[in-house]
Amino acid sequence: MWKDLLLVGVGGGVGSMLRFITSRLAARFIHHEWLFLGTFTANIMGCLLIGLFSGWILSHQLENQSFRLLMIVGFCGGYTTFSTFAFENLRLMEMNQWGLFTLYTSASIVLGLLSVWGGMKLGHLL
Protein backbone atom coordinates (compact mmCIF):
# COMPACT_ATOMS: atom_id res chain seq x y z
CA MET A 1 0.00 0.00 0.00
CA TRP A 2 2.77 2.49 0.88
CA LYS A 3 4.59 1.74 -2.35
CA ASP A 4 1.39 2.42 -4.32
CA LEU A 5 0.84 5.72 -2.50
CA LEU A 6 4.42 6.75 -3.16
CA LEU A 7 4.14 5.94 -6.88
CA VAL A 8 0.90 7.93 -7.23
CA GLY A 9 2.34 10.80 -5.18
CA VAL A 10 5.58 11.05 -7.15
CA GLY A 11 3.77 10.79 -10.49
CA GLY A 12 1.15 13.32 -9.38
CA GLY A 13 3.81 15.72 -8.12
CA VAL A 14 5.73 15.64 -11.39
CA GLY A 15 2.49 15.98 -13.36
CA SER A 16 1.42 18.96 -11.25
CA MET A 17 4.78 20.67 -11.70
CA LEU A 18 4.61 20.17 -15.45
CA ARG A 19 1.04 21.53 -15.42
CA PHE A 20 2.31 24.63 -13.59
CA ILE A 21 5.05 25.12 -16.19
CA THR A 22 2.49 24.73 -18.99
CA SER A 23 0.32 27.44 -17.41
CA ARG A 24 3.27 29.79 -16.93
CA LEU A 25 4.34 29.39 -20.54
CA ALA A 26 0.80 30.06 -21.72
CA ALA A 27 0.61 33.19 -19.54
CA ARG A 28 3.87 34.46 -20.97
CA PHE A 29 2.98 34.03 -24.64
CA ILE A 30 -0.81 34.26 -24.86
CA HIS A 31 -3.17 37.24 -24.52
CA HIS A 32 -5.04 37.16 -21.19
CA GLU A 33 -8.38 36.51 -22.92
CA TRP A 34 -6.98 33.21 -24.26
CA LEU A 35 -5.22 32.23 -21.03
CA PHE A 36 -7.29 29.05 -20.80
CA LEU A 37 -5.04 27.61 -23.51
CA GLY A 38 -2.62 26.46 -20.77
CA THR A 39 -5.34 24.25 -19.27
CA PHE A 40 -6.50 23.23 -22.74
CA THR A 41 -2.96 22.18 -23.71
CA ALA A 42 -2.45 20.24 -20.47
CA ASN A 43 -5.78 18.44 -20.84
CA ILE A 44 -5.24 17.49 -24.50
CA MET A 45 -1.65 16.38 -23.88
CA GLY A 46 -2.82 14.47 -20.80
CA CYS A 47 -5.48 12.71 -22.89
CA LEU A 48 -2.86 11.78 -25.49
CA LEU A 49 -0.49 10.50 -22.81
CA ILE A 50 -3.11 8.47 -20.95
CA GLY A 51 -4.10 6.91 -24.26
CA LEU A 52 -0.47 6.23 -25.13
CA PHE A 53 0.34 4.69 -21.75
CA SER A 54 -2.80 2.57 -21.58
CA GLY A 55 -2.47 1.48 -25.23
CA TRP A 56 1.10 0.42 -24.60
CA ILE A 57 0.12 -1.54 -21.49
CA LEU A 58 -2.80 -3.24 -23.26
CA SER A 59 -0.85 -4.11 -26.41
CA HIS A 60 1.97 -5.66 -24.41
CA GLN A 61 -0.45 -7.40 -22.04
CA LEU A 62 1.45 -6.02 -19.10
CA GLU A 63 0.20 -6.27 -15.58
CA ASN A 64 2.63 -3.58 -14.52
CA GLN A 65 0.70 -2.04 -11.64
CA SER A 66 3.63 0.21 -10.69
CA PHE A 67 3.82 1.82 -14.15
CA ARG A 68 0.03 2.31 -14.21
CA LEU A 69 0.02 3.93 -10.77
CA LEU A 70 3.01 6.16 -11.51
CA MET A 71 2.13 7.32 -15.02
CA ILE A 72 -1.64 6.96 -15.49
CA VAL A 73 -3.07 7.53 -12.02
CA GLY A 74 -0.29 9.80 -10.71
CA PHE A 75 1.28 11.73 -13.59
CA CYS A 76 -1.78 12.06 -15.85
CA GLY A 77 -4.01 12.73 -12.85
CA GLY A 78 -1.68 15.49 -11.66
CA TYR A 79 -1.15 16.96 -15.11
CA THR A 80 -4.74 17.19 -16.29
CA THR A 81 -7.05 19.64 -14.65
CA PHE A 82 -10.77 19.11 -15.01
CA SER A 83 -11.57 21.30 -12.01
CA THR A 84 -9.62 24.19 -13.55
CA PHE A 85 -11.34 23.50 -16.87
CA ALA A 86 -14.76 23.80 -15.20
CA PHE A 87 -13.76 26.99 -13.36
CA GLU A 88 -12.42 28.63 -16.52
CA ASN A 89 -15.61 27.75 -18.38
CA LEU A 90 -17.68 29.32 -15.62
CA ARG A 91 -15.55 32.48 -15.83
CA LEU A 92 -16.03 32.64 -19.62
CA MET A 93 -19.81 32.37 -19.12
CA GLU A 94 -19.75 35.08 -16.42
CA MET A 95 -17.86 37.36 -18.81
CA ASN A 96 -20.40 36.63 -21.56
CA GLN A 97 -17.67 35.14 -23.73
CA TRP A 98 -20.08 32.62 -25.23
CA GLY A 99 -18.07 32.07 -28.40
CA LEU A 100 -14.88 31.28 -26.48
CA PHE A 101 -16.86 29.16 -24.03
CA THR A 102 -18.34 27.09 -26.86
CA LEU A 103 -15.02 26.78 -28.69
CA TYR A 104 -13.07 25.85 -25.55
CA THR A 105 -15.60 23.30 -24.29
CA SER A 106 -16.27 21.57 -27.57
CA ALA A 107 -12.63 21.56 -28.70
CA SER A 108 -11.54 20.16 -25.32
CA ILE A 109 -14.03 17.32 -25.50
CA VAL A 110 -13.54 16.43 -29.17
CA LEU A 111 -9.75 16.79 -29.17
CA GLY A 112 -9.52 15.05 -25.79
CA LEU A 113 -11.37 12.01 -27.11
CA LEU A 114 -9.35 11.99 -30.33
CA SER A 115 -6.13 12.31 -28.34
CA VAL A 116 -6.95 9.35 -26.10
CA TRP A 117 -7.86 7.29 -29.18
CA GLY A 118 -4.70 8.38 -31.05
CA GLY A 119 -2.53 7.73 -28.01
CA MET A 120 -3.95 4.23 -27.66
CA LYS A 121 -3.25 3.55 -31.34
CA LEU A 122 0.34 4.81 -30.93
CA GLY A 123 0.74 2.78 -27.75
CA HIS A 124 -0.17 -0.39 -29.62
CA LEU A 125 2.56 0.33 -32.17
CA LEU A 126 5.35 0.77 -29.64
Question: Number of helix segments?
Answer: 5
Helical proportion, percent range: over 70%
Label the overall shape. globular
The average pLDDT score comes to: 90
- Given the helix and strand composition, which structural class is it? mainly alpha
What is the H/E string? HHHHH
Largest sheet: none
Q: How many strand segments?
A: 0
What proportion strand? under 5%
Calculate Rg over CA atoms: 16 Å
Report how far the terminal alpha carbons are from each other: 30 Å
- Poorly predicted spans: none
Counting structural domains, the number is 1
Description:
- With 126 residues, the protein is mostly helical.
- It has one domain (7-125).
- Helix content is 85%, strand content 0%.
- α2 (37-59) runs antiparallel to α3 (65-79), α2 (37-59) packs parallel to α5 and α4 (82-94) packs antiparallel against α5 (98-125).
- The longest helix is centred in the first third of the chain and has 28 residues, at 2-29.
Topology:
Layout: H1 2-29, H2 37-59, H3 65-79, H4 82-94, H5 98-125
Notable characteristics:
single chain, 126 residues, globular
Summarize the structure.
The chain has 126 residues and is mostly helical.
